[in-house]
What we know:
This protein has 473 residues and is α+β, with helices and mostly antiparallel strands. It has 2 domains: 22-257 and 455-471, no CATH class; 262-356 and 399-450, no CATH class. The protein has 13 helices and 14 strands.
Amino acid sequence: MLIDLQLATLDADRTSPNYSGDAYVAMLARLQGNILKPHGRDFSSHLFIAFTPGDIAAVKRWIVASVLPLITSAQAQASQSALFRSGGDDGGLFGSFALLAEGYAALGLTLLPDDPSFLRGMKHPDPKAALGLNDPPVPAWQDGFQSSLHAMVMLADDDQSVVTAAVAALTASMAGVATVVVEEPGAVFRNARGNVIEHFGFADGVSQPLFMAGDVEKQRMNGGLENYDPSAPLGSALLKDPNGGSLAFGSYLVFRKLAQDVAAFRAQEAALASALKLEPDQPELAGAYLVGRFRDGTPVTMQPVDGWTNEPDNFNYDHDADGMRCPFHAHARKTNPRGDKEREFGLPEGEDRSRRLARRAVSFGPLDLARPPGAQVGLLFMCVQSSIVNQFEFMQAIWSNFTDFLRPRTGLDGVIGQAAPGAAAVPQSFPATWGVRRSGTIAFNLASCVDMRGGEYFFLPSLDSLALLQALK
């Protein structure tokens, strides 16, 4: 194979002594953007589309003529980013296109990506799974997500008016071939310092698997790699596109609309702080115990207050094996154990790293921590990976939802954990005093403040296969 999916730190700079080779640059030209790197735009719209039954050839022509020109390749995304960093204009409109398994079937395509969960769809989880996602029943999902869908188009730009105009133009082009069933707008939420946050107020996206050599080197220069290496092999995000040639790759995209009850989270945070009898100078420690980080991104395993001056990703839990600094149920520790599984279960080094996924989430709702009462806010959670079963579903079901991970009676993930219907509550344990083992723990039963409102499993096909769509069978 021309492309080595075990390659970590792809270098597409032809002037670099570590240049990965022309095959990788050609692959990037065929790969959709927002997979190996976030697209970086502030405003986005996600159009969930149903194809009009009947004339499949017309639907294919519409995709090739109206959608394909909007899609930004990974190579174009990199060029736009380089131009912007050098003082040039922003990258302009970004576009991507993803298909459900139902979309492949509606287009009459017989070669599909073969992940079992992709083929079933999010509405139809594996009935044989010992541990599940524990999502609400489909009739409780938001209208639209309950419907049969075929594809999603994402359009993004730093100018909201550009996104609005592009959505209007694309919608007009759909006449007779497709319908927008749901439109979900998203926007990057920043605090007063310009840091990206989510609606609970915590720094968002501060730890990601890195695929490009330049990003890994930037991490090395800014924060170091001696305690945690964020690099990831291409194969954790990419897989062969079954309808493309030797350089055609794609990725599975998971989309979930997660509503956040900010008032309930704040109340729970305050109740936990009271139960822990926190000192007046530690008001944020309770929230850090829930998330695994303070609101500025400082890892709670590193210190009991915020303000860590290093880049917030160069750490592990080797000095916190008993969870007396960062509880085992904290969201950041549940979803990225950073060596805990090797220590606890004797698993091979790096096994937990193979479960990582690349988050591409964006907030929805009013971008204001002092939001209007009753405002609907939350996260449009998206992630890309090469296996839905072994990455997203494993992380959600076996880590976040499993009350005995990492140790018996650890409890649910403090943020996104979902209990099985009828399951008895398992209180989480919190350090009575940060970092002091002899002080013991205090039990506190967390209530969920995140509600899954609907979602789907998609595949992001290569530009090659989309260009050839009218000839594909």
